[in-house]
Amino acid sequence: xxxxxxxxxxxxxxxxxxxxxxxxxxxxxxxxxxxxxxxxxxxxxxxxxxxxxxxxxxxxxxxxxxxxxxxxxxxxxxxxxxxxxxxxxxxxxxxxxxxxxxxxxxxxxxxxxxxxxxxxxxxxxxxxxxxxxxxxxxxxxxxxxxxxxxxxxxxxxxxxxxxxxxxxxxxxxxxxxxxxxxxxxxxxxxxxxxxxxxxxxxxxxxxxxxxxxxxxxxxxxxxxxxxxxxxxxxxxxxxxxxxxxxxxxxxxxxxxxxxxxxxxxxxxxxxxxxxxxxxxxxxxxxxxxxxxxxxxxxxxxxxxxxxxxxxxxxxxxxxxxxxxxxxxxxxxxxxxxxxxxxxxxxxxxxxxxxxxxxxxxxxxxxxxxxxxxxxxxxxxxxxxxxxxxxxxxxxxxxxxxxxxxxxxxxxxxxxxxxxxxxxxxxxxxxxxxxxxxxxxxxxxxxxxxxxxxxxxxxxxxxxxxxxxxxxxxxxxxxxxxxxxxxxxxxxxxxxxxxxxxxxxxxxxxxxxxxxxxxxxxxxxxxxxxxxxxxxxxxxxxxxxxxxxxxxxxxxxxxxxxxxxxxxxxxxxxxxxxxxxxxxxxxxxxxxxxxxxxxx
Length: 599
Prior knowledge:
Layout (H helix, E strand, L loop, with lengths): L1 H6 L1 H12 L2 H36 L3 H4 L1 H9 L5 H51 L2 H6 L2 H43 L1 H49 L1 H6 L3 H51 L4 H33 L2 H6 L7 H4 L14 E9 L9 E9 L3 E5 L6 H8 L7 E6 L2 E2 L5 H5 L2 E5 L9 H6 L9 H10 L3 H4 L19 H14 L4 E5 L7 H15 L4 E5 L11 E6 L2 E6 L1 H10 L1
Parallel strand pairs: 3-8, 3-9, 6-7, 7-8
Antiparallel strand pairs: 1-2, 1-4, 4-5, 9-10
Helix pairs in contact: 3-6, 3-8, 6-8, 8-9, 8-12, 9-11, 9-12, 11-12, 18-20, 20-21
């Protein structure tokens, strides 16, 4: 069964869609199938209704001689056959207008449903991003994350859901047409089947592997193109200074050219079926005609049969064309299941992100690490080895050590970005529980060297995660005062509503760090972690930031500081020196300076 599913494209695709859809979406998809059947029935009914109208127009005398037509004629009291024919034609036009208006409305419902699926999958992928392990995020590719969240769900809608709806719709049209043709002439049905079905199957077998390869190639080239684009945008200054602009332009254009070739090839595969089936149908008519010439069977009955065959074939042509196009599109979009398969509906609830803390831990006494160990995946050496220390509430503690000594890893554990592999993180001598992590994080402000700033107003950067109308401006101003930003804000054209540029491009290093401090204060952080917050600043700016940090002492904030410049640590109650993932010394600031002078 599993092997059959993997080989049967339609069955396999429906199974994958079923796993991704919620129960409500599955029920809705069944309703979409009935809508599709209804649209197909309307199309066939519209076609069937043309036959009697043309019959009456071509043979007006049948109005009097045909009992069924005559009964309608007399029931409505028509005064002449001409008026009757006019009314019938007008009714037919009205029927087609109504049918097509209704079909447009139903198609809108189907398309809306398909893009609701896209929205839901984007939500799941975005939630999954925030559930992904921190170490995977920092080592991952941001282009792929963006593509998987924003682009691939749309690809699933346009490349799988919509074509599947079209496929089922056209298959139903063909099925109803076959039923109608079999009633008219079974020989005609057999002849159409012999000509159209094998030729359609042959074409699909010829292009299926190519279409699937093109789909994967399109997605890969699109990701590479955006990767070079993002690199060139974020590396703007370096590209100019190192004279690498041409390198990034060439790389981007090379990928774009390959991507456009993939798009063109896929578009060609969409257009070929119409031409192919048209040739096959004409070839069928030609073969029938040649056969009749050879066997001398051309007569009025044969010509009528040939006319009906041509009419039926060319009515079925669009349906067979759309069936092949849909199958090729579904085949070329199979790559989306490889990416979306890890967010099935069965895991949707687990992926839901909730910013509201279920519990807020009590922090009245201390934070303590007890025999904590951590090693990064693939590394034989521990990043943290049996770390134990305690920070009392309101204390200021510093951490020093060479790069790779474990300082930032230690901070990441406190922030719960990563989890210790053994040992414990205790708050007020109680191990921090899983359902307290969200609340714990909201108690911490994190100021680092590469602090992230929004391409938004100053107030939105300080309030972070709030729309402009939700921001408490009075509180923003209080935080600006405490972070020593007042003089800077007074120079801005729109005050706190002034945009600061992407990643704070309009700001100096010191201004960025003060905004980071103001953000921590706005969110009422009881604990503030400084990770190399002044290492990229000049001495004068560093002294200003240190002064700003000193202003926080009066507010009794608990502060943990990583620093290379020891002057930043002057107010620390004690300083831990780390090496190879271990705490090797505990020092006072004066002892640290004296020791370094001796060295």
